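Narrative of activities, Objective 1.

The group set out to show that a structural description can be obtained from nothing but a protein's sequence at a throughput compatible with the screening campaign. Below is one input-output pair from the validation batch, recorded exactly as produced.
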Amino acid sequence: MEIKKMPPMSRNFVFVLILVYLVVAIFSFISLLNHNFKTISKNKALENKILETQLQIKNQELQYLKKQIHPHFLFNTLNTIYGFALKQSKDTPEIILKLSNLLDYILYQVNKPKVSLKEEIAHIKEYIELEKIRFQDTLKVSFIADEIPETIQIAPMLLIPFVENAFKHGHLIDGFLNIEIVIWFSDGNLNFTIKNTTIQNEATKENDGIGLKNIKKRLDILYIDNYTLNISEFEGWYNVNLNVLNLKAN
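Output recorded for this entry:
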């Protein structure tokens, strides 16, 4: 094509240079956008992978903590059954039945992320009934619980370990182990208190073992910033008060 026949603008060197510059700039901008999009997608996938891994680690930690909670209870209850069987006690079948119900909860229901609060309370009652058989005339228990809506959910085995600790570390004073439990639910908040008689300065030392540490770790994982746990010892009583906030209905 002769130069004279070319469009006037295309014969302008500056115009052609600007046009080439614009084309290169637009192409570079699109390439940069594409690169950024791919980088963001990769970072997002990496973040999801890290979160997924952290969740798996937390779940494994939770499973490990839950497995450490109940060996002591099982050991004691089996010993009780063995003792009753040796005496050929008529109470032996009842103890086995109660233990069976509780084992079903501990071994199977505990794998669920949440259970109804009402169910957890029902198993606390079963646990106490088993301990009453074991302690016989040396135990005094007061148990008061609100009527809890069926839909309120909590992590399984959240309260039972405190009850187990009260029986495990409580001391007989004047021939009796006294345990008092109060549970109430209001405005989405659970309040749980339990106290047991103890020999001064012995309870804190004994309770500060693996069991209580495990409970605190579980609470930190499951209800971080949504719970308070206060433990004290006063005038021969070991006191635990747990508040779990913002519990949601099923």
